Amino acid sequence: MSSLFEGIIEAFRLIISLDPDLLQIVFLSLRISGTALIIGSILGIPLGTYLGLKPEKKTRLINKVIFTLMGTPPVVVGLIIYLLISRMGPLGVLGLLYTPWAMILAQVSLATPIIAGLTMVGVRAKGSEVVETARSLGAGPGLAAWTVVRESRIAILGAVITGFGRIIAEVGAVMIVGGNIAGKTRVMTTAIVLETRRGNFELAIGLGLILLILAFFVNSFLYNIQRGDSGN
Question: From CA 166, how far away is CA 137, in angstroms rounded?
């Protein structure tokens, strides 16, 4: 119990003192997860919208694949990407292994199926009704699809929030492909693992609290946007 209280004190000390090493880890974590979330949204939202607008019987196999990928263990994703970008892999010439871009690739692979799957469910819940209404008002296929996206924006934002929650707390995949290199690929989650292995539980708890605080504020921001949209 004393380690817990010491960890809390350490967390506030690190925050108040604006520790340079801590700030570097925090900003790198946000940069990697933020970039992965943007890319995952760009890929997942159109895919989920397309599948949601199609009859379920025509996309049943793809739906099953996406739902399976939504629950894929992060270490499996990390292993696959490692084999792809390692020196002997087909993408080894790109030199991505143990770089932030390798970590972004791993997080995109985790976030995209979640965003696509939840977007598909949200769009499908309103799709047919909205499309029929839009078509009856003279809208073409493109405008009708855009109308469905607008009407499903709360569900889509919820998908993005869930995707962010998945990747900001992820450790297995990013450690496999990133290597936890100080000043280069060390993020909040991998730093917590390292400090725990060192027996530095106070700092590990402090980093964990900071990670929770960051996740709370980011998710609260997205939640307020979602709530504001639902009130319109």
Answer: 40
Q: Are 215 and 34 in contact (CB under 8 A)?
A: no
Residue 45 has which token pair? 């939202």
Q: Please, what's the b/e burial string for 181-199 (b: 16 or more CB within 10 A of its CB; e: otherwise)? A: eeeebbbbbbbbebbeeee
The H-assigned helical ranges of 18-99 are 20-53, 60-70, 74-85
For tokens 């995209």, name the residue.
112
Q: Which CATH architecture has domain 2-231?
A: Orthogonal Bundle (1.10)
Q: Report whether 176 contacts 75 (CB < 8 A).
A: yes
The C-alpha atoms of residue 224 and residue 232 are separated, in whole angstroms, by 13
Neighbours of 21 (CB within 10 A): 12
Distance CA(47)–CA(144), nearest Å, equals 16
Q: Give the separation between CA 67 and CA 15, rounded to whole angstroms.
A: 39
The alpha carbons of the chain give a radius of gyration, in whole angstroms, of 20
The type of residue at 232 is: N
Helix H or strand E segment including 90: none
In this structure, are residues 166 and 154 in contact, taking their beta carbons and an 8 Å threshold? Answer: no
Stated length of the chain: 232
d(CA 124, CA 148) in angstroms, rounded, equals: 9
Residue 60 in tokens: 């049943």
Q: pLDDT per residue over 99-144, tens digit each?
A: 999 999 999 999 999 999 999 988 887 766 666 666 666 666 667 6
- Report how far residue 145's alpha carbon sits from residue 123's, in angstroms, rounded to the nearest whole number: 10
Taking only the tens place, the pLDDT of each residue in 182-213 is 889 999 899 989 888 888 777 788 788 888 88
